Structures are given as structure tokens and as C-alpha cells.
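step 3/5: co-fold with iron/sulfur cluster
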Amino acid sequence: MGADAVTEEAPETAADAVTESTADTAAGAEMDRVTETAARTNTALETAAANEPSGGKRRVLRSVCPLDCPDCCSLLVTLEGDRVVEVDGNPDHPVTRGAICAKVRSMPDRIHHPERILYPMRRVGPKGSADAAAFRRISWEEAYREIVGRMNEAIAEHGPQAILPYSFYGNMGILNAEGMDRRFFHRLGATRLDRTICSVAGSVGYGYTMGASAGIDPEDTVHAKLIWIWGCNLASTNMHQVMYATEARKRGARIVHIDVHRNRTSAWADEFVAVRPGTDAALALGIMHVLIREGLTDASFIAERTVGYEPLSAKAAEYPPERVEEITGVPADTIVRLAREYGAASPSYIRIGNGLQHHDNGGMAVRTIACLPALTGQWRHRGGGAIKSNSHYSALNARQLERPDLLADPSTRTVNMNRLGDALLTLNDPPIKFLFVYNSNPAIVAPDSGRVRQGLLREDLFTVVHDLFLTDTCRYADLVLPATSHFENLDLYTSYWHLYVQLNEPLFEPMGECKSNFTVFKELGLRMGFEPEIFGISEEQMIREALDHPDNPYLADVTFERLKERGWMKVGLKGLSLYEEGPAPTPSGKIELYSERMRNDGLTPVPEYTPVGGEEEDLPFLLVAGPNHGFLNSTFGNQEKMKKLEKRPTLHMHRDDAAALGVASGQPVRVRNGRGEIRIVVRAADDVLPGVLVTQGLWWEDGYEGGQTVNALTSQRLADMGGGATFFSTRVEVLPLDADS
Ligand code: SF4
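step 4/5: write C-alpha cells
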């Protein structure tokens, strides 16, 4: 069978296959694909050296996936001339090993999409119009002149804090996500943006326990004998962890999925444990209760490598399984069995997901779960421990990249990106008069989207959006600037899961008049008269500055030259993890089951459970809006193939709740709260616990009848730590479509 036939007929990824059959089949299908890809790649690379374009000939070049996904895959891109005809995995990459997801296989459709923006545009129609005719083409010269003029005007009238950048990681390339842009806004003195929408609450919580965003090497997870996947749909969001876990299972490991929703990962795991949203800390405390009560802890590891065992065990004593069952919905005997399995298995590994931190109590939930491997001494065993994030190991030199020293006034205010709506509508002294959006689509992704849109509609707000497509946010823009895809950029990529740094070289010239974020902010900086030695540098210079990080010993051997030659380099982690030996990077030098730092920060110093809530607690359902399989946040939400794969926004509801409401699978309902209302089709089953609703995927406005998207319902309320988002603590009611308001 030829490679093309494999592409057409085989499941697209391990994760796709998971839904169709078993994980072993998934891994097998993916490895068949990898073998096919390797053969095809070797042939292609004989005729074209990696990343040396060869005219119009068909050639295969190396690249990196730019999406906000832990896997950070190495790609092989087949080009005919400057046209991407196929995107595949690179079988030579030690972790991603040639397997990629369906989303990125469809990347050629995205790159050459007929609706891609290829030149700057100015709005001529009303703000909020979905009509492409609401914009007319202009030159970059006109665009730059207007941006500089408007910025200077805002600064003259209100000061530089009247300007707000809004960005996240639509492209994870370091230069384009946190490089020249940061320098530009620091130098300008603009209002700072706290980029808190994704993982901050859990990272802060994990940091209180462990000291840094550091876990074990995921390549070691094949050695685990017990794997808990907690709060994450791995099959859709970390597929190479599925592959490692599948290998571990072949060696005898058992895999348990703990989550609020039975999904693709549950179908692949050996056991699914349904937990009520926002009760993960209680479940972890219940497991600790049993571990401690039954003597299943590692006394020598606790004594040598942790502080605070006594107060933690006193807290865990308050959480007997029967009480935890009432809180979490997990039966008491299941809690006891899970704890006994965890206490007996070694090495055991916990993959802590991003889902469970998007609650009012999300930081504490992650902090609490992070205590479990320490109680059983797992950090001493290859394959034992946990990963929440591994970004600590590949941390680049942010001081050089972002140049915070350029900010003249250290008291410059900060806006939390989860409160964009309020910032646009209520900030005074000065008000936000200029908004610059890039690498993000806040009209869809930011919480409380009704408020965000109301703010974006302000006629006295000048908004610039730099993107590849006319997103829903662009509808409110005064200027739209065409962005390159990452295939057109030189950039550096790190993973927050595996330990490889990768270089991405441009595969072809920018399409149309597209420019990268790096180039736009470089050129704007120079037009503003900023220092040429800081703003006039090349991408390569900035990469060298980012890699030159004396405070990060793991990066010592990673150089631009080596990356250019090899494509990737593994950071220099010696041993199993940061916690195997030597001091932990906490104030005490030990894993902190009790944290004095938390107490000083006004938080409870030992793990505890507090119920989610805060707003509209009388509403009967808790709604969780997680990621789907075919989009990444709102990326791909305008791509027909991926929309077709996802079909339509769906509301997963327990069958008893559906029966009580008199609705059946396939029927549309209204989901509403005080912030907004969406219309969505129900799937009634036992995929969630009663009282819980789950919908997946950030669909664009046209995905919903009525135009309001799921973030019309979510709140600008912040989590317990780091100013994180509380997307998953959303209280709603559900009404049949024909019910009175
Ligand atoms: S989205 Fe994730 S799994 Fe898919 S290709 Fe990119 S890094 Fe790999």
C-alpha cells in the first residue's frame, strides 16, 4: 500500500483510532504510518537536503508544529514550488516519531485557504460586520502610518497606558509570541497584559508544591506500571503521551482516566473515573487519606525530601472516602481501590491536565494532586512522578527576549487578559483607546464574550488585528494586517511537555504581503524611532539572545548552530528529574506539602478543597467547555474539513437530566445564565455525571444558531491562583427551545 493510500484509508492519528478500536490498534496504525513516512522521507530527502528549497521540484522539508499543544511535533512538509501539498510527522524526531494529528495533516488547506488575508485592510463598513466588503485593501505604508499616528495621538492625549496589546499563543514560536512584540510594548510604555488564560493557576499551584514547572522526562513514562491521566483528554490534546502510555501498557501498565467527561481518552484507558467538575482536590485528599491510613506511603522519601507531612496528614484525615464520595461523585470503594493501587504500584505516573485548573479552585487542585507522587516516593523511580508542565527545563532568556527593562515606569498598570471585556468598558485614567490583537481571537476565546464584543464595538477604540484570517475579532478591527504562517518564519520552539528545543526555518517566501509578528513589531519600533540596536536585529540574532541563558544550565549545550544542523536538541537534564536528588527549587529545598510561601501570599498553606461557586449558584448545571479533537482553541474553526469532522457544537448531558427536562439526543436547547445564551444540540447519555454539562471546541460565531458562542456564558471571575481563568466553573440553566424566557 502506498503512502497516499495510507493517508486516505487509515485512521488519521493514534487518537482518531482510539475512538474506533483499542489503543493497541491505534498505536499499530500510527506506527504503520510512521514506517511509510520514513520510507517516503528518505527517498525525498535524497533529492532535497533538508530546508534547502529546490525550485519548483517536489521536495520534503523539515518544520515544527506551531500550535499550542504540548507535543510540539517535528514535521515533514512536502512542497511543490511554494505550495504545501502534504504535512506529515518526522519519523526521526525522538519523541514525536512521525505521528501527528488530523488537524495538522489538514494544514495545507489552512495555508492555502482561499480566505487567507494577503494584504492590509482598512474597515469601511460598520464595526461588527461579518461582511468581507466592510474592508478595503490598503498598503503597508498606509497601515503603518495610521498605526503610528493613532498610537502617538493616544499617547499625547492619554499617555502610553491607553494602548493595550492582546495576544496569546496562536503561534508558539518564541520570536513571534514573546519576542519583538514584548520589546515594542515595553518600550512604548503600554498597559501590560497578564497572559493568564490557559495554564497559570495550575502552574502556580504546582509551583507551590514542587518549586518549578518541572516533572519527569515523558520518554521515561514507558516504564510506569500505573498511569493516571487526570483532567485531560490526552487523545485529543497530547497524543504522543497516548503512544508512550500504550507502550507502557504493553509492558504491563494499567491506565486510569480521571475526568469530568467520558471521551476518546476514556475509551482507550483501562478505567474511567467520572468526577464532578472542580472537586479534584477533594478526590486527591481522599486518596491521601487512604494512603496514610493504610501505611502505603514512602516514609523515607517523605522524611528526606518533603516538608509538612504532619499538617498534610491532619488535613487528609478530614477526607474519608465516604465524605469524598459525596463531594466528588466517585464511589467510596473506588476511592479506596484507586488509593491501594496507587500505593502498591511503582513506578506510577500522573499526567496532570490543564482542564482541572480552569476552576475557582484550580490552583489548589493542581497543588494537591502534585503532593501524591511525593507521598509514595515516586520521584526516585524511572517513569515515576508527574508532569503538569516541563517548561522549566527549556526556559529561554526572557530578560533578553522581552526586555522588560525598556519599560520606563515600573508602576505601569497590568490588565488580566481574562478581564478584557471589563478593561475595554470600565477602565479609566486612562481608558483603553488603542487595542493591538495578534496570535489570538478574543471575540471567541476570551471569557464573557458579550462584554468583550461590547467593548470592541466602542467607536472611540482603535483596534488593529494581525491574523491569517478574518476572524470574528477582525469584524471589530479598524485595521487588519496579514500574518505569515509559521512555514514562512524563522523561529524557535520549545515544548512544555517533552525536552527538545527545535528550530523552524522558513520553507518559502511570505505569501502575498504577509508579515510575521516579529517583522511588524520590528518595523513599527523603527518607525517609532526606537533604538535600532534593539529593534533592528534579525531573527537569528534574537534566537541567539534567547538561547544565551546563564541561569538555565539545561540549555548550556543548545546553540543556534547545532539546532540549524540537527533541527532539534534535547535539553541537558541529568538524572530522572529535578526531584530525584539535590534540593528542590522551593524555599525549603524540599517538596512542600506545607508551604510557608502560600501562607505569606494569603493562601491556605496545606492542600484543601473549597467548592467552586462565586456567581449564580442557584443555577442547576455546571458547564465545562473543553477542547475538541479537530480545533485548537479557535484555530481550524473556519476550516471546512475540520468542521465536518466535528459536525456541530454538542452539549453532553446525563440522560436523567435530559429526561427531567423532556429533551432527547439531537434536540436543540437553550443554555443560559446572566451573561448570555447559546443554542446547542443535546447528546443525552452517561458520559457525564448528573448536574454536569460538557461541550467541546471553540466554534466560531457561524457554528451556532443565534451567533452567541460558548464564552458568552463564561465569567471574567478569576481562579484562586495566578489570576487564571474559571472557564469550567460556569453555572447555567438549560431550557427546551420552545420554553418561555
Ligand atoms: S497539534 Fe499537537 S499533535 Fe498535532 S501536530 Fe501539532 S504538536 Fe503534534
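step 5/5: annotate
Residues 65, 67, 69, 71-73, 100-101, 103-104, 239, 632 surround iron/sulfur cluster (CB under 6 Å).
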